[in-house]
């Protein structure tokens, strides 16, 4: 059984019912999880207790923070779409995302990655392709690029060893 709140009157959630009464899975006080239940998958509803009192108001939302997050995510998706449409390699896209996690001030300029308006990384996006005025920015970006490719190589080695494991087990069992 799932405790349910009220049916939604919002057109976006027309086929859903939600429950604002679930304690927060994060454990934070004064927070609650909201469960959305798709009514298209519900075959039976049983009313156990009909409430007459008005439910407590939902917590207020920080609209400016939500708008800012939506704007940032939209910009990131547009940047990804630009890279794909410009024919940037998968390695270049992955490197861009790695750099962007650390340094938000990075963008595409055709197929080049421009970081902090100071460092340009050209294809094939290796450490030696990092160009800019010698200094802390260039040094920092080179370290990020080095670490990125070390991590990618480690991941490949791990994947290969995991792929070989079933083959070894199959060989041993035959």
Would you mind describing this structure in some detail?
With 174 residues, the protein is α+β, with helices and mostly antiparallel strands. The protein has helices spanning 63-85, 90-102, 136-173; strands at residues 6-7, 16-23, 32-38, 106-109, 112-115, 119-121, 130-132. The strands form two sheets. Strands 4-5-6-7 form a four-stranded antiparallel beta sheet. A hairpin with an 8-residue loop joins β1 (6-7) and β2 (16-23). The chain is extended and about 70 Å long. The two termini are 49 Å apart. Residues 6-13 have low confidence and may be disordered.
Helix and strand topology:
Layout: E1 6-7, E2 16-23, E3 32-38, H1 63-85, H2 90-102, E4 106-109, E5 112-115, E6 119-121, E7 130-132, H3 136-173
Protein name: LSM12 homolog
Pfam families: AD
InterPro entries: AD (IPR047574), Lsm12-like (IPR039683), LSM12_ABD (IPR019181)
Quaternary form: single chain
* Alpha carbon gyration radius: 25 Å
Number of strands: 7
Average pLDDT: 82
State the low-pLDDT regions, or none: 6-13
Helicity level: 40-55%
Order of helices and strands: EEEHHEEEEH
Strand order of the largest sheet: 4-5-6-7
Derived from helix and strand composition plus strand pairing, the structural class reads: alpha+beta
List keywords for this structure.
alpha+beta; AD; single chain; 43% helix; 7 strands; LSM12 homolog; 174 residues; LSM12_ABD; Lsm12-like; 18% strand; four-stranded antiparallel beta sheet
